[in-house]
Amino acid sequence: MRALGIVFPGQGAQYVGMGRDLYEGFEVVRTTFSEAREILGFDVATLCFEGPQEELDLTINTQMTILALNAACYRVFEHSTPSRPRVMAGHSLGEYSALCASGALTFGDVLKLVQARSRHQQEAVPVGVGSMAAIIGLERSAVENICSEVSLKNGAVTVANYNAPEQIVVSGLAAAVESVMSRAREKGAKRAIRLPLSVPFHCGLLFEAARRFEKDLEGVEIRQGDIPVLSNVDPAVVHGPDNTRELLTRHITAPVRWQETIEKMALMGIDTIVEMGPRKILSALSKRIDGRIRMLNVEDRDSLKKTLEFLNP
Q1: What pLDDT is attached to residue 247?
Q2: Given pLDDT bands bounded at 50, 70 and 90, which one contains residue 59?
Q3: Which of 120, 202, 239, 251 is catalytic?
């Protein structure tokens, strides 16, 4: 019996056409997208399948479509196998998918919460004021030091994602992010890539967004999930009714500690992880973190078939 973990991707995994194959093949997927349409008031399925890409890439649309597809992928998987995961996690936005899949939050509450969260984030920082960049090929301490030096001269910029060894994302004021990219190249980074995002996620510029979102969380019922969900803020901590509101509020301004999340799963004895949702971004990161873990995914009928054949030989 495999020791199974489940992970969910976040913003950046979207592409036009995502989910169409599963939608055509499974009633539970069509039902999931129908629920999302009723809750949100727009046709999530059409946006996923037909785009256009520039509409799909808008933060509020991206987050709604990723959430719906992540949920649909997990529902298909759950109905197709007796295998039960020991633990779940999600990268940034994906943490909400994990909380939903675990039973801690309802699908409707997750969609409404993230809709409010994305609106607060976009309103907190005008488009063009902030940005994010991926730094490839430098140790985390080197990137942290560069951010500290740049912040003293060019304004706020901090690490937003500890994704994998020597793969780190920074976030902050646009000019400061550009300076970090330049300094990183000087220090020997293999690549420094500005990310096409309209919001500088997981940094202090979103303090006001976090304050407003804290109020949104007050009226939401949070239950004890059936499956433990690790926190991006502190992977040593498991979500529960007593701490989820505080963790999700901090989540807006705190960095995503994904490398530690996968390392924690390995310490728990997880030997197989299934990524639920579009692309295989987390699978690629996880292989770099711990190559001993078998990575599988579910995003269409073919990947579902391969995953089920491995888990249920």
Answers
A1: 98
A2: confident
A3: 202
Give residue 140's pLDDT: 97
Residue 198 falls in the annotated catalytic set: no
Would residue 80 show up in a list of annotated catalytic residues for this protein? no
* Average pLDDT estimate for 247-265: 98
Distance CA 290, CA 164 (A): 10
Q: Where are the domains of the chain?
A: 4-124+205-311, 130-197
Catalytic-role residue among 83, 91, 92, 118: 92
pLDDT at 109 over 90: yes
| Topology (CATH) of 130-197 | Alpha-Beta Plaits (3.30.70)
Q: What does CATH list as the number for 4-124+205-311?
A: 3.40.366.10
For residue 70, which of 299, 302, 305 has the smallest C-alpha distance?
299
32-51 mean pLDDT? 97
